[in-house]
Design the sequence.
């Protein structure tokens, strides 16, 4: 006779208590042979001594950022990544690095060289890509838009607090129907007495669920041109919801934003945004910063693998003693040296005023492509532990995927560079282009 439903329920509860009621073993007990990433490995990836390319100030700043990230973020990053929650309690610690505002001069911002800002981006990403994206959205997108396109009053009003992380910002361009084709955005701004009414929707907006300020781009219904606006949180008609179920950058709180007749006063319209081309002032810098995120991620993965292979033993010897493992480790190291050189040259082109959109796009596309290869090799080297976020590589493997896509996919960035070197734009299918001319 089959057991009753009540008996089945009791048996299930007893089974769960017996097998699933205990916490997981501490990693030091579960796998004592190798150190997890909560104790971050020393940097071993600067094989070609790139520190020599940096100024004394840039090297000192790099050390400062590295120390904060290793001490404050490394111990808790796997826990918060698994929960897909942001560790708000570390924001004051991140503020001590003085990275917010990056290259902006004045208004309480650090006024870094673009190389210094890029190095800081890499050092944050080396430990945790989510924290790097949080800072990049806040600093290299939202703050930089206010600095480059805002009025003097807006800069004075908003930048000092943002530079100290006392207030947090996000940057809204992408929409559900317009990702790569961002210039076709459909969110509208309609002029009314004393301000503007925003209607529409944005998607994939990092930091948006908790941002105090939202820098938003919308199409002017009178001129059909793109304008920029600073929107305050909790304003009537604004709704922000979190995007769930991501496999990468899980600590980053990406959101869907809906605007229903959201009123923005005239003083919060960004006067320097009058067309889509004005967004390129910001994207030129942010694309350089994004190119440095994969450099930092692969540095961390290499450092982790370098330590792991010397600690982990099989067949009576450290994994580092096996030829095939050394070959993979060297291939990773070679990729990182090449990626660093491309990123460094990109910074110098920008600083000299010679960087083109094609330069930035090629840098971002190629670096993320090589980073993908590098973290894949790292995942192989760690074997079974390569799928555990405790040992960094699995987390980095997943975190790199959205970075490969955002700020222009590999394909779109390749086409930007292709247009620049051939003089021919190939973004729209040829058949559709011909049909539109008939």
Sequence:
């Amino acid at each position: 006779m089959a057991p009753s439903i009540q008996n089945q329920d009791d048996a299930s509860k007893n089974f769960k208590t017996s097998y699933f009621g205990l916490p997981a073993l501490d990693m030091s007990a579960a796998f004592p042979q190798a150190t997890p990433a909560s104790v971050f490995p020393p940097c071993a990836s600067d094989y070609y001594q790139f520190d020599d390319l940096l100024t004394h100030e840039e090297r000192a700043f790099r050390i400062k950022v590295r120390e904060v990230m290793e001490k404050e973020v490394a111990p808790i990053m796997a826990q918060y990544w698994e929960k897909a929650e942001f560790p708000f309690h570390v924001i004051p610690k991140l503020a001590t690095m003085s990275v917010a505002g990056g290259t902006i001069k004045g208004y309480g911002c650090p006024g870094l060289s673009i190389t210094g800002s890029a190095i800081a981006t890499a050092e944050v990403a080396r430990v945790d890509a989510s924290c790097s994206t949080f800072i990049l959205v806040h600093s290299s997108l939202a703050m930089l838009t206010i600095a480059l396109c805002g009025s003097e009053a807006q800069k004075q009003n908003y930048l000092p607090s943002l530079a100290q992380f006392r207030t947090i910002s996000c940057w809204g361009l992408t929409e559900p129907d317009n990702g790569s084709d961002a210039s076709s955005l459909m969110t509208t701004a309609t002029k009314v007495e004393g301000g503007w009414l925003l209607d529409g929707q944005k998607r994939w907006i990092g930091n948006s669920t908790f941002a105090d300020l939202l820098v938003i781009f919308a199409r002017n219904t009178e001129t059909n041109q793109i304008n920029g606006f600073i929107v305050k949180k909790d304003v009537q008609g604004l709704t922000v919801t979190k995007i769930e179920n991501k496999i990468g950058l899980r600590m980053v709180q990406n959101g869907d934003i809906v605007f229903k007749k959201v009123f923005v006063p005239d003083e919060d319209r960004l006067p320097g945004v009058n067309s889509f081309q004005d967004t390129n002032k910001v994207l030129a810098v942010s694309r350089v910063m994004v190119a440095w995120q994969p450099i930092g991620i692969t540095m961390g993965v290499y450092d982790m693998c370098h330590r792991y292979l010397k600690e982990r033993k099989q067949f009576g010897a450290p994994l580092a003693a096996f030829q095939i493992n050394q070959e993979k480790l060297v291939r990773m190291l070679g990729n990182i040296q090449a990626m660093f050189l491309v990123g460094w040259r990109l910074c110098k082109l920008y600083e000299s005023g010679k960087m083109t959109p094609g330069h930035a796009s090629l840098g971002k596309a190629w670096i993320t492509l090589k980073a993908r290869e590098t973290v894949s090799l790292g995942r192989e080297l760690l074997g079974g532990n390569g799928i555990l976020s405790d040992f960094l590589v699995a987390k980095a493997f997943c975190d790199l995927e959205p970075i490969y896509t955002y700020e222009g996919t590999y394909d779109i960035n390749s086409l930007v560079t292709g247009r620049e070197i051939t003089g021919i734009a190939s973004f729209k299918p040829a058949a559709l282009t011909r049909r539109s001319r008939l």
